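A student in our group prepared the protein record below, which I am reviewing. Thanks in advance; the entry in question is below.
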Amino acid sequence: MGARHSVPLMPNGQPSAQALAQANADDVNSWGRPPEEAPEDEKDPTELVLQSWAFCKAKPTPQKMYRSDADERKRRQQVNWRKRASFIELDCGDDSFFVANNYKVIGVADGVGGWRSEGVDPSLFANTLMENAKLFAETHRGERDPEKILDAAYTKVVKDGIVKVGSSTACVATLRKDDDGTHKLDVANLGDSGVMVVRNRNMHFRVHEKVHGFNAPFQLAVLPPPMVGRAFSDRVRDCVRESVPVQEGDVIVMGTDGLFDNRFNSELCADAGWIGKVEESPIAKIPLVGFFLSGILDEKIDYVDPYRVAQRIITDAYKISVSPDANSPWASMLRQFGQTGAKGGKPDDITVLLSRVSTREDLNNNTSW
């Protein structure tokens, strides 16, 4: 999360979010382990799921540029819980993400980089929070309330005590089916990460952010006693809750602020939309032709391969983030706050999680995972 800090606050006399989580932590050790095979009720080939791909890039620092083999092995061990090999190899800096193996729950988190000056690894809180969210979603497979999933994950962070100090924004989304057969994407967003729904390469929906002020997002935290009441430590129930109808072929773009600060909504929709259905496009009905022509019609996308699309989205965002002259959402926001002539991107860790609303049959037939 760049150089953001847990900004001092005035105590209000209310129980801290950390204290509330501790009080509600009685059952976090009873989650058990996820099933090794998908349950029978998750084998319907027509069921809609979130077919997901991820890519990320850490903000350039001397430490990351010259990481030793031992440090890299340690980093991979810390994210082994992601399970998928292509996810474990990703170095997201202080960002983190998860995809539950029921393919109905996804999330991202952005560790607050300001803790680094206190000798704290900001990625530990974000990774632990996402690991817990994944575990809860996989052991409580029918739970579709993203706020409950996030609350359980945070409660376990506090209860386990592995993270002594740290904080993070967080965003969790779930796919559920209503009684009338329609599907909804439910989102709980605490902070300035984002979720977009792309349909026909246009923005169908974007979740609102939750911030205290400029560059000061809401965040979950574990604080040492001297800092309780003096630093941001928000409650899970402070999150933005939104729901949007989705359908097969929609594309979900979930990312940390490093993505949305450096790419405009229209750019993300145009790029991410290549992996979804485009109903008005004649080539969408001819998959092989569409696959071939995509590299010609839009030179920014090498192939209509979701992993390559995610990779290219991050590459483009990274180029903007380190450019002093580029126009970016970040520069546009600075100008709105009075910095006339502001330009350039915002150096930050950048993470994108692309999900296509697909049938379980399509998911199982996909050989690129």
User: Anything to note?
Assistant: The radius of gyration is 20 Å. The first helix runs from residue 17 to 23. Residues 291 and 304 are 6 Å apart (CA to CA). DSSP finds twelve helices and 13 strands in the chain.
